[in-house]
Records
---
Amino acid sequence: MTLAPLAMSWPIMTLSVLLVLTSIMLALTVLLHKGRGGGMSDLFGGGMSTALGGTSIAERNLDRLTIIVGLVWFACILGLLALYRFTS
């Protein structure tokens, strides 16, 4: 009995680790966003504050970071799909 069928190839292992890390980062970046009304933040009193004119630079950078992490997350899923489909 060999361990070859049980062992993952290095691209699958790399993408799997990257998927876990980006999943955690994506959850954290989404949770860092300010509530914009009508959601769960209003339920706990977050809707009482008013918007003070536009978005800050930090919010725009957080938006960009969230989009980039989301795209990397999606690319990992597509890569794993391709690897699992064509290696078996």
---
Amino acid sequence: MSTIDHLAAARDQLLTLLAERSAKRGDFVLASGRRSDLYVDCRLTTMSPEGQRLLGVLGLAALREAGWDADAVGGLTLGADPIAYAIAHASAFAAERQEGPLVRAFTVRKQPKQHGTGKRVEGPFQAGDRVVVVEDVITTGGSALTAVEAIRAEGGEVLGVLAVVDRQEGGREALEATGLAVRSLATAAELVARLGG
């Protein structure tokens, strides 16, 4: 199986997992405060063994396809954490096969730590790192922007934003309006199609 076929099969598997485990129809109030008939709890996929494997492979491939030569990936805890860890893990396997450099993972606290170093960005992040902000679901883009601000405040260079799911509700456009490039592994429309419309 070619690399392209392998990635296409992995993406199909990820869409299936997201539709079966993470997407729900009903009447929901989102973190943004908006109401929606679609709720996506990516953690039910991103924290599963199968989801971790798929996100690592697809996330790392998306970084490389975008031309993002990232030193590290991370975003606002808690949604971004398993995505960042999966990509870092996949980069270790790729590096063993001499298929690219290691990519470190980090997490951004919602508030600065009140003790110790008082850091907001945790993990092996370093000032000067080129980073990609990862996000489970983009709705308004607010969480990603919060992470971007924290990373820049600590000396990181943000290359772009990678989301698992783009809800297609203006978040991508809001991020792009600030000059950020945005990629997603899946869209709300694709999940709705798998839920039967």
---
Amino acid sequence: MSTNDGNRRFQIFREWVIFLAGHSKWANIKHRKAKVDAQRGRLFTKLGKEILVAARRGGDPDANPLLKTAIARAREANMPMDNINRLIAKATGELEGVNYEEVTYEGYAAGGVAVLLVTVTDNRNRTAPEIRHLFSRHGGSLGEAGCVAWMFDRKGLITLSKESLSVDPEELMLLLIEEGAEDVREEEDSIEVVTAPDDLDKIKEFLSAQNIKYSTAEVTMVPNSTISVTDKNTAEKVLNLMDALEDHDDTQQVYANFDIPDEVLQELGE
């Protein structure tokens, strides 16, 4: 591996592996990965599938929280409203379109790391063997339904940049707890707010009322414990699997419970 390739991979891995202190920062990771993704059309495809699946439960975002969230994510990526409205029309039968379904896969990466993968596909008979191949190729194994889902909790996660705050972080953290946030965590450059899924919109509205901007806000899956991966070869297999799963065309979300120390990441970047 060349020095340049090593440094590039190290930077990518840094974006993937922010699971320290036993919690997930996946919202932040997704946000940064999307920003550097040159294949904008591919991002729109993923967001479009998310809207199609959500809209099948109802085309009114005010009555369908999943659709409301999917639309918000699409708008954050600057997807035009015309595109969004066409997708909703297809999902509700007003326009002819492909029938997508959401399929969740569970398995283990190298070192026993739990992996939870959410896909949206128009052909699960094609997607399943492709996902199984990716697990096997990178030293993991695809498991049965339910084998790792119990290791994750569904939570709302909001990330605030400290640079954008006009209020005292400690005071804000207390206010958020009083408002109903389950947990507020202070990191070096940011504040993470963990909520019950149903309370996410309430906390967002509170922040907006205080003129406080947030970097990301979404319902995600947070691991309830992490596995420390200290072996360099194992860590590389885990990260390569995560990268391969994320790059699969049908993938919507990837969650995992690994914790790779900074010194191991640095070795991988050399």
---
Amino acid sequence: MKFTILSQSKSTSLRTGIIKTPHGEIQTPVFMPVGTVGAVKTVAPWELRELGAEIILGNSYHLYLRPGEKIISEFGGLAEFNRWEGPILTDSGGFQIFSLSGKKSQNGNSLVKITDDGVEFRSHLDGSKLFFTPEKVVDIQLAIGADIIMPLDVCPSSKASRSEIEKAVGLSINWLKRSKNHLESRIMNHESGIKTHNSELIIQNSPALFGIVQGGIYPDLRQFCAEEMIKLNLDGYSIGGLAVGESQAEMLEIVKLLDGILPKDKPRYLMGVGTLDDIYQATKLGVDMFDCVLPTRMARHGIAYILLLTQSSKLRTLNFKEINMLKSVHRADKNPIDKNCQCPACSGGFSRAYLHHLAKEKEILGIRLLTLHNLFTYLKLIKEIRLKVAA
């Protein structure tokens, strides 16, 4: 993977760049639609490309459970299996695993047990016991064939104590070191034709590995974690453990802190964030990559997002609006969601009244149209942000 900065704002840390991967180039800043189980919900790969998506996200935990990484590998990797045929980033599944930690089994025990070696947990599908190590998670992602992979990390709850978050930072650093060593060993052995204990694994790519900076909202823990991960000279750096209950101000304060610490010549990825305004504000703090389920998830609940552009003599202002299509005020509205939008729903002439009807009936077409609109809006925001750097 190669990252090149193309332009830099004079007043903020906002910049544009290009990430070159085995499956193609990605312009940054970039928004990555979430395809947790290998598909962005209700949207076909060609539609994603038509909307302007350049990279999608998959989840190692879910793909490991079904259909299994070995099946994906036999098809030539996820980009071939799901016919996206473009760059893919995979999350390690750490967030999904640790989201189970607050849940209890019937006997009152936690569904997640963390050790120095890895994490033991139970499948949310059938309750079977599983154990993930940093090495196993790397192997899963190698089989999936992602272009950018994430290490197993500990993602504590927003309500966790400082001592819990401090422990999470220590484990995340140690697991990252193991992930990096294992990845380098697997690629070296593969290129040398050396058989290993897991030689049946077909390596689809030599992926880029990002670190995941943890530390909650504690500046000193964030700084320590970032500095330790920088020593490993990674391909990029992710900011994890945010958008999990803290305020936007607290989140942006941590992002601002890390803007001054993380290397300028490496891409920064703010994981799981967020609203249109979250993304807009974070790009000004030097973040290059984003993913979030909001545009697809909220479409399934009848929510449409609107990007409002105001042009004065010298200033182009971005604002945002949320519309609930389930509200009766839209029942006879002949207007599209946004008359200035060129998404398939708006440019296709679908009225708010019709979308209101579809949303009330829980009709799949309604979900699809709102999803296409929301994704188009998120991707349009990214294009507008890139233009602001060039202006």
